[in-house]
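A note from the maintainers: we've had questions about how concatenated examples are separated. There is no special marker in the raw files; a new sequence line simply starts the next protein. For clarity in this README we add a label.
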Amino acid sequence: MDSSNPFGDLEITDPQTMRALAHPVRIAILERLQRHGPATATQLSSEVGATPSVTSWHLRHLAGFGLVRDAEPDPDRRQRRWQAVARGFRYGPLAGDEDGTEAARMLARQLFLRHADVPQRWIAEVEPELTPEWREASGLANTWVVLSVEELTELEEAIERLLAPYVTRDPAERPANGRGVRLMRYTLPDGADDEQGGSAA
């Protein structure tokens, strides 16, 4: 496996593909398929906020860019089932590609918007129902450090290497008492004029 992609994610560098994915319904469709496996347009529609026909159109659009594909049909073979081509994706422009840079920013905006309220929903709806053990293991880290670009890249790669065995292991190897855990990681460099120095908080 590529050491720079330890999760085995689909790598997206094509600007058109990034723009195709930069749509709330398409991101919702892809994330649902990646997390829960194959589904029909009808099964997806109620979860992604679109009618079955609109969902089907978005699925075909995603398929045209190689992001989803046909899955094994239902036993009755009456409805088309879809699956994600990979468990996750990562994106970014090729060096010097201005069109790709703008497309990546467009996709990033949609992803940030989609997940902006996740912590609020978790604290309101999920956290109150957790056992004390799970509540104690959860939480928020907000750490500020001064790094070079090279150090930040190295840190991100180290985090992914640490997570990779858990992300890629076979479902049969998951612990019997395990549950899904969302690890949200924002890497947000300060602006060039922000004050340098200081310690982690």
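[label: protein 2]
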Amino acid sequence: MKTWTALRLAASLGVAALLIAACGSRGKDGTEPLAEGKLPEASKQPVSIKFFIDPAYLNDDEVRMALTEPLRTKYPHIRLDVVRPSKDTTLETLIAANDIPDLHISWNGALNYLTDLGIVDDLEPMIRNERFDLSRFEPAAIAAMKNEAGDGHLYGIPYVMNFQLMYYNKDLFDQAGAPYPTDGMTWEEVIGLGKQVSGKLGAPYKGLLAGFNEMRFQLSLPLVDPATKQAAVASEPWKKVFETAYRALKASPESDRPASFGTDRNVAMWAAKNRNNTLKEPSEAGLQWDVVQFPGFAEKPGIGSQVDAHVVYMSPTSKHKEEAFRVIETLTSDEAQRKLSRIGKLPALNDNRIVGQFAEDVSYLRGKNWKGVFQGKFGLPPKRVMDESLVLKFALQAFDQYASGQADLNTALRTAAEQIDQVAEQKIANRQRRLVP
């Protein structure tokens, strides 16, 4: 982490930018407010918008298709300057060099981290002035962003959604003489079906491959309790997730061979986050597969995942906020969202006509049961009080110890809680010190 002098300067400049924006809501003579729904006329002089984008969020072809080309047509005075991350180029190094991008992309769970860096802006004044229609979006995505913020404000606009689902190998089910999985199955039903398939096929075939982290994500279980600021992993819901994942693991006989759905084709069902990009070559090589809804827990029926949205944030120091907002509008337009949907990215819009075109332009994804996968709902994520990636490893280690028999369930979770508390106490204290004026 770079020195916080630069970061505090960024935050201070952000406050100044908000004040300037507030003053800008008056007419040129400083007396008459603009009519509702009107932004100040954006300059038609050429403007360059610096946009920090990891290729994992939007690669070069996607940037061209969803941003560069439509901007050239609709707003030819706006030029997009895409900055890609590298070892020497991160948000923190850009802040330290006073070279802060106008826009940047991350996910909804990164809001606290980005707030600490001072590079998120409250978009609600601009949304109101522009009459930007939030009702077009998946309601859970907007609710999640406001929940992450804690103050009910909106600091980013989602443009696509990640999701969880279950893949299945048709050939293995046919060989086992077992029925294919269906939408709406519970974990208990899927575990039973996995036992049936693996029992018929034997090692090295695995009836079900599923991880506890996807299950805890499904139930929106925090690693650190937002109320107590202490580890939450010793709770009963966490125990249930560990026990369910353990039963899924033990549903198939042990094998020394690796288990993989696409490469080795020895996994009948794979419950996971979206991994469509790994299935192109296996599909072309003859893998016969389809998808169903992520298995559910009885206490949260129909929930496949908490909200995991890819989000565009605006830096408060941007000198071209109106033009930067035009870029956000372009990325979330029906046109861009339809294009993203057709290449296999789930739009953030609540529009069945656009979502229904999911993966239509991707030959190996076309014709799968996406309608069934997307019939589920997204859960509201927990309020994160720190970057969970810093402590997730302790929960992963705990499950490995439990699953391998090195520790019983309570001992494994208690050890993880102690490790999480040590890190969380320091990180939360450091964050509070940084936020003190």
